[in-house]
Design brief:
Elements: E1 2-7, E2 10-13, E3 18-26, E4 30-39, E5 46-52, E6 57-59, E7 67-72, E8 77-82, E9 91-103, E10 106-113, E11 117-122
Parallel strand pairs: 2-11
Antiparallel strand pairs: 1-3, 3-8, 4-5, 4-9, 5-6, 7-8, 9-10, 9-11
Length: about 120
């Protein structure tokens, strides 16, 4: 099984910064991608940023130039650096990872989610 554990959420004033971490552990052979989603109260979960192996990254328009996604491959950990936070960024942030998992006859890919971490930005 594969587990994702997020950390780094909290309460911050508008204009402040936070760095979220997503530690991937368990039985897998490689990480294909790590993405961050967020879900505000009463709203659908939406993609914030995604980074794939090979270096490609993509961001939601609302966070471009403010958020940066990165990964430490040695630690199997992904990060989301969030600068210039707005009250509208308040949400539960979830980490998602697509990994390659070994099987009896080869391997398969699977998507896994973390438990979420609350980010609250006060005005």
């Amino acid at each position: 099984q594969v587990q994702l554990v997020e950390s780094g959420g909290g309460l911050v004033q508008a204009g402040g910064s936070l760095r979220l971490s997503c530690a991937v552990s368990g039985r897998f052979s490689s990480i294909n991608a790590i993405a961050w989603y967020r879900q505000a109260p009463g709203k659908q979960r939406k993609l914030v940023a995604i980074g794939v192996s090979g270096g490609n990254e993509d961001y939601a328009d609302s966070v471009k130039s403010r958020f940066t996604i990165s990964r430490d491959n040695a630690k199997n950990t992904g990060y989301l650096q969030m600068n210039g936070l707005h009250p509208e960024d308040t949400a539960v942030y979830y980490c998602n990872s697509n990994v390659r998992v070994p099987t009896t006859y080869g391997s398969r890919t699977g998507d896994y989610w973390g438990q979420g971490t609350q980010v609250t930005v006060s005005s």
